[in-house]
Amino acid sequence: MKTYPGATGARLPRWLLPDHWPMQGDQPQLATLHFHSDGLQLAPDEGPHADYLPLNGALVLPALIEPHAHLDKTFTIQRSPAQQPGLLAAIAAMHQDRMHWSREDLEKRTQQALLWAVESGVSLLRTHVDWFTTEAPLAWQVIGEMQHPLCCIERVALAPLSFFANPDDAQHIATQVAASGPGALLGGFIHSSNWDAQALLNLLQAAEQHQLDLDLHIDEELNTEAQGMRWLANTLQHHPFSGQITCSHSCALSQQEDALEILDLLAQQRVTLIALPLTNLLLQDAVPGRTPRQRGLTLVKEAQTRGIPLLLGADNVQDAFCPLGSYDPLDTLFSGVLSLQLGAAFDEASQLICRADAFYRNDMVIFPHADTASWPLRQRQRYRLKQGVRYGEATNDA
Ligand SMILES: [Zn+2]
């Protein structure tokens, strides 16, 4: 396999370029990338370089991230569609389906999902895994055994908040997650239908004690009375958490009068927000026979203004929660650009589906025939360039 020591003619997004990068007209100058063993070095294009991969203005992004998926449920829509619109009906359909979740069934579905994600250029996939009792489910183990040389997989234990009401149960769950090794996180489903402040405190304390990061399904609803984010923001003020906290969904912020104060507090606490535009558009404000009036999305722009780290995730793919989906972050981004009215897709919004650190570790995705005006709708063909080696779809004229 050929290893390139660098690449010329890379069109990088503006958000990734250093300040004062030279412009050519209204476009940033193309870049030459030098792949060193200790990282990537970047310079304005210096003309042809022997042995370097010529990219000729191809669009280049850091390897992509899928920060929020549900591999245990994926590809079950055919046998278990939801009987009604909305989140709670989808949860009911999932409970119907899980009698089919044998090792063979789980392996088949999760491997397909992983393959689709890797084909899309995903280098880090975080999946939530539902727990149905305080014992780790089979899917936790099956997904824990999955490996791919081009993709790291993280698992989040997704348990309803009620499982943490008893501190001993909270400890028991956290102990199993901690014993699962790196890439295992503690999570929870926190909703006004199961709100319990003491249980959330137990969850936080168990995570802290076992040095686990958190990723919470929190306030995935448009109920102004949702308490999760408000409680978390206030509690972290007095009980700082040493790990990383990620809050997924947080749709209720779009309805709450004190939402900006909540965000101000969370901005001080290194909390990351994940918006899930596809499923939030589909599952929020969902009433049979009535056109939805609300978008159901969290306050992405207000979070950005406050410097809160933010990502977009796919959430459910081809299950009772969402019948569509592709594990392609470009589809999520397209949905987000429109529904959240984000800025330029490539030059600004693309930072919501990847992170600069992958790029500086010489791991990127190349869109060889793309231009910034058409991306991500047309010219979606791509390949991965990792440590100077090309993977995936080969093209003659990179
Ligand atoms: Zn989810």
UniProtKB/TrEMBL annotation:
Q: Please give the SUPFAM superfamilies that the UniProt record associates with this protein.
A: Metallo-dependent hydrolases
| Family annotation (Gene3D superfamilies) | Metal-dependent hydrolases (3.20.20.140)
* Residues covered by the Amidohydrolase domain: 175-338
Which Pfam families does the record match to this protein? Amidohydro_3 (PF07969)
- PANTHER family in UniProt: CYTOSINE DEAMINASE (PTHR32027)
- What is the name of this protein? Amidohydrolase family protein
